[in-house]
Every structure is written in C-alpha cells, then in structure tokens.
C-alpha cells in the first residue's frame, strides 16, 4: 500500500510530557522540547470521547454542548502513562484524553498535520516521466486505487493506460474512485463536436487552459477524458499546473495575485435551454485555506466568465484586467504546458481544482468520453485507500 504517514509532532517526537498545569478555565500540558499546549476547559468537555458523549459507531456527538456551563471547571485531574483523566464539576462527568489525542488535536499551538502526499509542481518537462497507472492495476485492488489517487494528489493529474476502448470500461474505471457527479451534461459523458450540448466542448474549436464548472458553487473535483475515436487533425489535450502558475504569479506580481485572490468573478452556464446555472456567489480565481493560508482551489474559465458589473470599487476594473492579463501570460508560457495527443486506451484524469486543461482545434470525427467526481468524494477515497480508516479516525477523534 502506498504509504502516506501523517507527519505530526506525535510521529516525530515520542510523547514526553513533564507537567500538567490547571487553571480555572484551562489545562496546559508541557511536551518535550519546551512545547506546551493549552486547552480550554469547555473545549475539552465538548470533545469528550467517551461513549456517552460520542456515538461509538457513527462517531457523532451525543453530548449536548449547550448544557456545558461556560465556566466549567475540573475538580480533579490524574495523569497516567496513557493520558489525562479529568473529573468535571458538572454532572460529575469524567473524561479521558490519551496523550497522543491531545497532541494530535493541539490548537494552541497547532502542530503540523499532513495526511496527503506533498504536491509536486511541474512544468512541461514532466512529459518525460508523466504519472501513469495501468487500468488492470486500478481495477483489481484498492492498492491500485491508492497508487492512482496518490499520483493524482501529488501531480494533479495521472494518465491511465490499457483501458478497453469503450465507454463502459472507462466508466467502471472512474467509478473505482467514487460515484460519478451528474450535471446538466449528464453523468458519464460520451461526446463529439456535434453541439449536442450548447458548449464549446461540443465543437472543434480550440479551448484555452481553464478549469471546468466554475459556474457551480462546488466545482467538480476530478475530471477524466478518454478519447475513443479520432480520424482528423489536431485535438491535442493541454494540461497546465495551475498551482505552479499561481506561485509564479505570486512571485512575479504579488499585487496581481492579491487582486485575483479577492475579486469575485461571476460565471455561468446558460447555453442549454433547460439550464441557467450560476454559483451561489461569484468566487475569485484563487481560494485559500482560511487556517493555513495555503492555496486550495483555482477557478478560471474566461469563456464562462459572465458580465462583471458588481464591482465594490470601480477602480479595481483596470487592476483586474492588468492582473488577468499577467495571469494569462503565465498560463500560456510554453514551459508550463503539457500537450498530449490522447489515444484510444490512454485516458487522463486531473484535479480540476488545481490543473487547468484545454485542447487544440481539431477537424474530423472525434469521440471523447469521461466524467466528473466530486472533490470530497475523491479526497475521501484518496485518504481511505492510502491511510486506512483506523488511521483517519485517529486524526478526527
Ligand atoms: C461535459 N464536458 C466535459 C464534455 C463538457 C463540459 C463543458 C465545459 C464547461 N464550459 C465548463 O467549463 O465547465
Ligand atoms: O475536448 C477536449 O479535449 C476537452 C474539452 C474541454 O475542455 C471540456 O470539456 O472542458
């Protein structure tokens, strides 16, 4: 099994705690290396892991948080080699917290927790050694899915070779990750340039680097393409590592990066008569994790960008256009572009929150199939196949 071991302080340093200090409102545990964690009493009580407070099977909270007095205090505390026992002055409840649990969930300070492979940014040179898995490997075991999903997480994309050249096998492959996300384009799509749907994808026109479904409140997490038939010219597939491009923008033009992290961009899908889709609120190109500041999602599709008439400050208009011009200039640099002529039997899957995709114009008959997977369903499968449920439950409880 591909090993992705959570690198937390627990992993790095054996648990040496040398003292526990209690105050009327909190508990302070001193670990090794002069690191100490402080926990609010109400936080500790609210996170009691006993079977009265947390359902042993569903892991859902049974405790009524709102009955905990805001000034709850401990009446006694006992230390053992395994953990800390706290007797509370409310409902004579006793809670036990393993030292490893306390370290893992320390929030003051927070300890580094990584449960996913470190993302490796790439440029066009990755083509010499692109991430790839074999269809049979993925189909025959969850270890194969672990390898597949960890490559998607590390590189943002992965090719899959040896796929039987039909939509049914391709759909079965995609479902090895999770159920397919159905949209107004259907579930598993099988399309050509016949404008069966009113979207540029259903033409032979060139499509520049973009992310899909920017018009959904929750853009699709993964997207897979498998070219089944092609008898014309062109139609090469393009991938660009959006996280690398964002890093370059941040380095070369930090003001542009800041603007594109804040200016909300309206988006739409309204070509088809039966749909008129817009996100619950416009979102900026770059979305960051509020707690770590890490870039989490890129949303960029200039074709699907709708009329921008909700400027909080009209002076931002020219700043915005200067910023997207710079962003586009970086996105279209040759050294960041991976061009691949897909062929029947070789599919590509990519992280639609990180990797932008596109294609060159084409002539002739070109039949492509594929589908979307929700972000959270993908990450769930990535973690479960690579870490295992027990390990994951430790991180949550
Ligand atoms: C379903 N299939 C992938 C063929 C087409 C999707 C349409 C792409 C759309 N403009 C977007 O950016 O989401
Ligand atoms: O036809 C292709 O190769 C890709 C089309 C596309 O970019 C899309 O469907 O979002």
Automatic annotation (TrEMBL):
GO MF annotation terms: iron ion binding; trimethyllysine dioxygenase activity
EC main group: oxidoreductase
GO cellular component: mitochondrion
Catalytic activity field: N(6),N(6),N(6)-trimethyl-L-lysine + 2-oxoglutarate + O2 = (3S)-3-hydroxy-N(6),N(6),N(6)-trimethyl-L-lysine + succinate + CO2
Single biological process term from Gene Ontology: carnitine biosynthetic process
Enzyme Commission numbers on file: 1.14.11.8
Cofactor dependency: L-ascorbate; Fe(2+)
Domain TauD/TfdA-like: 132-372
Domain Gamma-butyrobetaine hydroxylase-like N-terminal: 26-102
Keyword S-adenosyl-L-methionine annotated: no
Domain of life: Eukaryota
Family annotation (InterPro entries): AlphaKG_dependent_hydroxylases (IPR050411), GBBH-like_N (IPR010376), GBBH-like_N_sf (IPR038492), TauD-like_sf (IPR042098), TauD/TfdA-like (IPR003819), Trimethyllysine_dOase (IPR012776)
Associated pathway: Amine and polyamine biosynthesis; carnitine biosynthesis
Cytoplasm listed as a keyword: no
Pfam families given in the database record: GBBH-like_N (PF06155), TauD (PF02668)
Keywords on record: Carnitine biosynthesis, Dioxygenase, Iron, Metal-binding, Oxidoreductase
Recorded family membership: Belongs to the gamma-BBH/TMLD family.
Role, per record: Converts trimethyllysine (TML) into hydroxytrimethyllysine (HTML).
Name listed for the protein in its UniProt record: Trimethyllysine dioxygenase, mitochondrial
């Amino acid at each position: 099994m591909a090993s992705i071991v959570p690198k937390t302080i627990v992993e790095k340093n054996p648990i040496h705690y040398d003292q526990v200090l209690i105050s009327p409102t909190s508990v302070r545990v001193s670990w090794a290396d002069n690191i100490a964690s402080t926990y609010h009493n109400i936080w500790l009580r609210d996170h009691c892991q006993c079977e009265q407070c947390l359902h042993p099977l569903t892991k859902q909270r049974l405790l009524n948080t709102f009955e905990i007095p805001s000034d709850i205090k401990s009446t006694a505390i006992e230390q053992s080699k395994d953990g800390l026992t706290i007797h509370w002055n409310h409902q004579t409840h006793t809670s036990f917290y393993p030292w490893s649990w306390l370290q893992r969930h320390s929030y003051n300070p927070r300890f580094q927790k990584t449960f996913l492979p470190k993302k490796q940014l790439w440029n066009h040179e990755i083509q010499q050694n692109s991430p790839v898995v074999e269809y049979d490997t993925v189909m025959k075991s969850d270890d194969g899915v672990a390898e597949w999903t960890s490559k998607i997480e590390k590189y943002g994309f992965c090719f899959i070779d040896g796929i039987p050249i039909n939509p049914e096998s391709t759909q079965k492959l995609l479902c090895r990750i999770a159920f397919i996300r159905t949209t107004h384009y259907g579930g598993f799509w099988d399309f050509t340039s016949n404008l069966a749907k009113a979207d540029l994808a259903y033409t032979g026109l060139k499509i520049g680097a973009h992310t899909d479904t920017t018009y959904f409140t929750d853009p699709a997490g993964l997207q897979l393409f498998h070219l089944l038939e092609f008898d014309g010219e062109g139609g090469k597939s393009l991938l660009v590592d959006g996280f690398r491009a964002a890093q370059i923008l941040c380095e070369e033009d930090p003001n542009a990066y800041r603007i594109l992290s804040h200016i909300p961009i309206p988006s739409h899908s309204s070509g088809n008569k039966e749909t008129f889709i817009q996100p619950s609120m416009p979102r900026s190109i770059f979305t960051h994790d509020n707690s770590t500041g890490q870039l989490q999602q890129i949303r960029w599709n200039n074709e699907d960008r709708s009329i921008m008439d909700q400027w909080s400050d009209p002076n931002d208009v020219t700043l915005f256009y200067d910023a997207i011009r710079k962003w586009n200039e970086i996105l279209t640099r040759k050294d960041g572009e991976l061009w691949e002529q897909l062929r029947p039997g070789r599919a590509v899957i990519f992280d639609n929150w990180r990797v932008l995709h596109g294609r060159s114009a084409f002539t002739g008959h070109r039949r492509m199939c594929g589908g979307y997977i929700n972000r959270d369903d993908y990450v769930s499968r990535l973690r479960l196949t690579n870490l295992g449920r027990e390990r994951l439950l430790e991180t949550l409880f």
